[in-house]
Amino acid sequence: MNPIAPTSPADLRPATAREPAPRLRAFGSPQRYLQGPSALRELGGIVATFGARRPFVVADAVVQALLRGDLQGALGPDAHFAVFGGECSAAEIDRLTVQARTAGADMIVGVGGGKAIDAAKGVRISQPMPLVVVPSIASNDSPTSRIVVVYTDDHRLLEVRRMPTNPDVVLVDTAIIAAAPPRFFVSGIGDALSKKFEAAQCAGSGGNNFYAGRPPAIAQAIANACYDIIREHAEPALAAVRRKQPDPHVEETVEATILLSGLAFENGGLSIAHSLTRGLSIVPGVADALHGEQVAWGLLVQWVLEGRPDHFIADQLAFYARIGLPRSLRELGLAGDPDEAAATIAQDTWTRAPYVQALTTPIDRSRLEAAIRATRDFGSTAPGPS
Question: pTM for the whole thing?
């Protein structure tokens, strides 16, 4: 399963070149995290704690149709509701920022999926005020982070912005999470699964985390716990989500996919799996996949580059199949030629991804492309999702 030849000792950089220079260890997190069924009922008390009177709510039309009554009741009559347009672009952030300023907002509440939440964070960058994040799906690790991923209007990843601090409060109502389409839940599992391996590669290669510091030991411990929880609880949790009934497995998995996954990536750093989302964003069909689906496939490429043994990859592919994660570019949505796509993804990733070389074994663009090609037939090695 792994046709990429192991790197020989002669190919390795000297150990001294891989050792990080002495630098500060850095760790960050939200001030407060709340999770559980009916957690949304706590929102009113949170607003009161901050003394906010005119909250500015960013949520798309679908989320507002589902939750506006509950949000209005918790936030009061002076809350201003802004409809998120669907893409976290610079223009959308600017539009929402003008609305927040005009409304005289004294708190931002980002409700919904990753892009709506990131748009709310984008407003927070230029309008310093408390930020409360209320995810409506558990599709990725954005709720806890200070990172804002900005796209072009045609959905291509453009840049990453950073708030000065993490969100003040992250409020996760697992009844809302469990009621969302299961595909989002699966995507969050795919995003979280990578953190153990990406954090290890970032630390081992001397990379920085997202606070421009050396990853502390706690970051890898969090990433390891995230992976262990996913492997133990994700499958029964997904069954519960399909029944739209949160249970202890859902609680464990949501904590992993939102809290632990978010803390792990910001404090532990990233590597190949997330780097490949840059290249994937320009390939038709594949670009439309959810972030966690893209990351899960990217993790397969990373494992190939790491030289993982066949039995390890076979076990992971079987898990992917049971969960419903993509095992190949075809399963990720590719309709065109896989070899042509591999070349495009490798080239764009190599030139644009900031942590593509966060790997203990040095690689180049051709080696990255070969690893992408190696995943071509992975989808046929295990049964499909039940």
Answer: 0.90
